[in-house]
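Input chain follows. Return structure tokens only.
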Amino acid sequence: MAEVRLEHPSYHCAPVPSLGEVGAPLLVVGLAPGKHGANATGRPFTGDYCGELLYRTLHRFGFCDRPESISADDGLALIDCRVVNAVKCLPPDNKPIGAEINNCNGYLAAELEVQGPSGMLVALGGVAHRAVVRALGERQASFPFGHAREHRIGGRLLIDSYHCSRYNTQTGRLTSAMFEQVFERARELVNGAGERRS
């Protein structure tokens, strides 16, 4: 990270805090800050392609008040949703290693504890999925990752999605329709949980 700070002195280059209301009914778990995205702006999924797709989709299903996130001070607000990363800092070569994921897992566990045992989760990619399962103290083999797969872990519901990376979308592994399907389901479940609490 020191090298990136030297190359780009205006970049945030520090742990990136989560975004959204603490304890929100939906927790979206990403991977790590991108070098020229969240590592630059200081806000998850802001400043890169992943964020363009994520915030546009969140907005479509009423989880945020605008379809794009340009900078950390653009006023974007999340609704019923909080966005976190499995790894807080920029990883070497933009690819987190196991030690970094393990070191940051306590932060994710704390987010889950505050959210409560009936919270909903969307994991963006296999690494985020495994970090969630680990943070909940469960066995990985019991909860295999798969796009749009739903897992009941205690009272929680975890929905998996392929990560919204440019690589996944350019190769067709993840289409906008596939990504929207995950968040349409999340909105349906969040609304249903709210109706049950009323």
